[in-house]
Batch of 3 targets.
Target 1
Amino acid sequence: MEENKKRKVMLSGIQPSGDLTLGSYLGAIKNWGARADEFDCYYFMADLHSITVRQTPADLRRRTLEQLAQYIACGLDPEKNTLFIQSHVPEHTQLGWVLNCYTMFGELSRMTQFKDKSAKNAENINGGLFTYPALMAADILLYQPDYVPVGDDQKQHVELCRDVAMRFNNIYGDVFRIPEPYIPKVGARVMSLSAPTSKMSKSDKDPNGCVYLLEAPEVIARKFKRAVTDSDTERCVRYAPEEKPGVANLMSIYSACTGKAYAEIEAEFDGRGYGAFKPAVADAVVETLRPIREESERLLRDKGYLEQVYRAGAEKASAIAGKTLRKVYKKVGFVAK
Ligand code: TRP
């Protein structure tokens, strides 16, 4: 009945297990901000997920608040988006437990992120790391979203979430909306500056490959100066991702920061080589990130404001999440309190 006037819902989260990068901004958060007028949007700091890998408590706490400040500075207006800290909304762990009981050992064993992370953390292959996709399914299904914007690396988890939701709906009727993953266009995928065939990742051990949102302009400039270009002999700025992944990555960053198309960029640097191109990319990135860094720093000095945002966010999130959770508890046979 209210179906046709209902706004579409979008939800995503990022783990505060590393500092946000240029890749997080250009590939994700920048696009999220543009959706707020069309969709009901929920974005959260996935701190519960972070502890599947050992964290230093003070760092986790600092990064969680920094991430919130950066979300806002990147254009996620807290009046238009629900911004919250995952651990503040207990429904996530509550539904997470239920969904654990509807997620199969075999399914979890096939997750490539589990295999990667357990190879990297051989001394700490804990139960949480293994069942993490069931918690992620709960994160999503609580809000009945239509779309879940995620990077390529999370697509498998969203597909598992869909499978679990369908399994549950098959047994109990229509409880969950089945969400679609929403993968951004290839152009927005930012690669490492030092290894341009792998994604720029906040958990990368090589800090030179990554540009962080709060980094000083001199540091950013230095990283671009050192960025790997390609060992071809032509040394010209030409978009050829297969042959010249380093240059293609810098071009896609430059394009995302300036709005210029690849052909325009090729013309701009025609005959000028990489020596002129790299500092131009660095400048474009510095100017793109400057207002974000300044606004984040300002917000981080205003702890009272951040507290108000995350409290209001958790309250709103919990009101929605609680409805789904109550329905689930009833369906599986728990006595109402
Ligand atoms: N697993 C995601 C990542 O590591 C973070 C995440 C947790 C998430 N819960 C989510 C993303 C729900 C989208 C929806 O990046």
Target 2
Amino acid sequence: MSQRTFSIIKPDAVRKGHTGGILAEIEKAGFKIAAIKRQSISKDQAKGFYHVHSARPFFDGLTTFMSSGPIVLLVLEKENAIADLRKLMGATNPANAEEGTIRKKFASSIEENAIHGSDAEDTAAFEIGYWFAGYELL
Ligand code: GDP
């Protein structure tokens, strides 16, 4: 059954001109782009999005980074989308990411790691609803 997940091309990748390269990898892997928009977000918007990490030592740096330049917000669709996108992304730290993954190809550090992908059905639902209105998902 088709499933939706949420993804972000992070500011480091957009800045370096990797938006098209990352979208190509995503489409090549069989995902349909159900919604897409490029925008700059505020630090408060980033904090709301990453609220589960609010107690972590990297929270301030992460939310500063995420609001440091334009990002690309995506809703992606395919069978098993959530797990398959996580596989395609690779490990959080690009030093540990497998060959052929997006983070291996495009990420530069554990923080500036090019892409976000939801890790479960409930977080995907929260994240899609956080960034997209119903009429953008028709
Ligand atoms: P993900 O699901 O692979 O994106 O990883 P997490 O949900 O654990 O963390 C969210 C994001 O916080 C990561 O993608 C990184 O951008 C950042 N992050 C995670 N761990 C660290 C860390 O130890 N140090 C720093 N600076 N950033 C981190």
Target 3
Amino acid sequence: MLSDQTFRLFVDGSWVDGAKGSYAVVNPATEQVVAEAPEAGVDQVGDAVAAARAAFPAWSRRSAAERGELLRRLADAFEKRIPDLVPLVQAETGATMRVAKTLQVTQCALRFRRYAQLANEDHDIALPPAVMPNTPLAKGGLIGALAARQPVGVVACITPYNFPLTNMAGKVAPALATGNTVVVKPAPQDPLAVIRFAEAAEESGLPPGVFNVVTGSGAETGQALVEADIDMVSFTGSTPVGQRIGETAGRDMKRLLLELGGKGAAVVFDDADLGSAVAGIGSTWSFHSGQICTAPTRVIAHRSIHDELVAKLAGYAGYLKVGDPLADDTVVGPVITKTQRDRVEALLESGRQDGAEVVVGGARPQTESGYYVAPTLLTGVKNEWRVAQEEFFGPVVVVEVFDDEDEAVALANGSPFGLYDYVWTGDASRGYRVARQLRSGNVGINTVQRNNEAPFGGFKMSGVGRDGGVFGLHAYSELQSIVWPS
Ligand code: NAP
Ligand code: MG
């Protein structure tokens, strides 16, 4: 075991053992146990929700500036722990060191700092007075109104395994900034760093019950949380689970923020800078083993540059070192579990059966341990095949061909998902024109870089709602109209 530390649930400001014991969290590279995580009982999920409910009135009535100050202290307390947290989150996620240090940990702190700052700004919307006529309802006059942002209440934050701390921060920071209280349910594969994060919450002086963490190895914990007396579910994960959550939440009109699966199209035109396209598309292999919902996994290439692009992508993929995520020169680490590797391999096999050509990869890398998938490139893919329609969530890129712009748009839009699409072209007006036709919540033109202030979320089966920057504050608030006569 890497860690002899004990991990407990954090409920109402106290550390409690899982009523159902514990379960092993496994390092995806070594297959060794990292530590035991608590297995919460359904009653403990209820306790966490009750604590969040009880803490809500006082927390929501604090000034936004006070809440911002607490978030800042939380970020400070978290940053002190970074040297301990990097090895822990690395071990439980299997991330390479480069990813572990940056997107797994530093980005978490930045998110708390950003929302601490945004909490200090006024997000209510003052409306111009309206001249209202006399009606049978009420006397006419000059009527003033304010659109005030009110917290939703108790928010369940349910997160996926790929970026446990950062994803949690993207929910918890805006939710707390706007005066909500939260119960966090991390993914079963890697909940340990999130539990450590709760120590920072405790140290920062957040009142008991404002921030709670419950964990468990199976769907029961999350399900109990969604069914409990909460006001909103903020969920990031797969589309099938999002659908189930939506059905359950709909019964009590619980508010929803759902960030679900993706199958990012990367449309590459004949005038594109192919070096830039290859670097962007190649991030599906080189960044966290392709376990990222926004990855450009589905290349739609103009026929005239198809062969050159494929040759360049093959060169890039072949050059990436797969293996021990702790080694400095490793670029591609393992995927999270054996189950996930088996899923990726089964989907690859369906591509072979359908007639795709495996240009690079396709075979399981020979390693002593770990759940590895080689960077893989499939060409000759038809849009209706499973490999073009379903998520791999692994280091696999598929390539389709188009002849004209309308066909490219139709292929890109021919997906149940609509999370993040990309366009590579040397013609800025074409890039913009095509972006506006893509049925996707986000479009990158000639880049996979993000703007963290931009709204983030999906069209179609990729989800409901937006967060990111100030949009995160909007997501965790209800608009209340306050109206008065002059
Ligand atoms: P997942 O299997 O859907 O699980 C996500 C979370 O939901 C886990 O905490 C899981 O815990 C919980 N869960 C499962 N069933 C539940 C239920 N019935 N009620 C409540 N909670 C439940 O997703 P994953 O495998 O961790 O992550 C990969 C997926 O996330 C991919 O589809 C990827 O595209 C998506 N993703 C989307 C975004 C985005 O922003 N759009 C970002 C990252 C990842 P248990 O497994 O213990 O049930
Ligand atoms: Mg799962």
